[in-house]
Amino acid sequence: MQLADHFNVLLQDTVNLSQYKLDLLCERVDNVYKALKADEQIGSMIIGKMPQGSWAHRTIINPVGDNEFDADFMLDMSECPEWTGSPKTYIDEVYAALKRHKKYRSMPLSRKCRCVRLVYSNSMHLDIVPHLNFSDGREVIVNRDENTWESTNPQGFTEWMKNKDALANGNLRKVIRLLKYLRDHKNSFTGTRSILLTTLLGDQVQEFRKLQDLSYYSNVPTTLLHVVKDLDEWLQARPYKPSIADPSGSGVTFDHRWEQSTYSYFRDRIHAHAAEIEEAYQETDKDRSVQLWQDLFGDGFKPPNTSSSSAKFPAAAAATATTSIVGRSGRAG
Question: In the CATH scheme, what architecture does the domain 19-152 have?
Fold first, then answer.
């Protein structure tokens, strides 16, 4: 059975990051941005910010247990002629600016391959990604490990994601969250990065499928069934790790994000999940169907409590899209 109302409860009460945490994320990003803008050495180079990754795509989920959640944001910077030929300097200087700040200098800070990571104890961490638009038209981020530039198009990826979600009647983002929940909370296909999961699931949403069957993406369980089955069919035809292109058209691939062993494990787990999802979906006995869905997603899969509202996201949040990190960032359940 579909049990779409049970999926709404699962998403709202178990999977989705709470509105409180989303608001806290926005507040902290604003504060970090203000601190960097005020820095005497690099403040004049900082020209903007925008959400990145799961936050921008509205696919961020609750962390496991007491683990911290993470979010990325792009730090738009202007070119510095003195740093020509040394891309890693942008990361090093953002790190140094935070080390100069009276608040952030005492917090855990580290330099990663493409970002500066700022950790808030028992809460969350921010990955701050220097991002430049060169005068020759290139849009780049830094690879500090190799001291090189990497082409990127984060807004293009977010627009692609938005279009795919609209084609799936607003259900793709929810399906991605559910699959990320299986990965993180149920230890399924561990090692598969979110950018790969998002791209592979989004690639399965196709207009011709909807033209053939208007109900193909009609609700969350139906979209989950079809997208996972379509992905399984695609994966089973490819025993060896395929090349995964950035759908934004940046010209880069995400191939470096996993190995053949990780891909093979992911392929096997999606094959198993496709069968489990179909069994639960097609089961006509309600109690048995609920049990099968719970075997996948746990006790959070349950009917709505009509006597009181337990939703973490108020109804108004469903209409709020993450278009800017200047304001507050809500999202549909």
Answer: 2-Layer Sandwich (3.30)
Tens digits of residue pLDDT in 140-167: 999 999 999 999 999 999 999 999 999 9
Q: Distance between CA 130 and CA 232 in Å, rounded?
A: 36
pTM greater than 0.85 = yes
- Which sequence spans correspond to the domains of the chain? 19-152, 156-303
* CA 153 – CA 248 distance, rounded (Å): 6
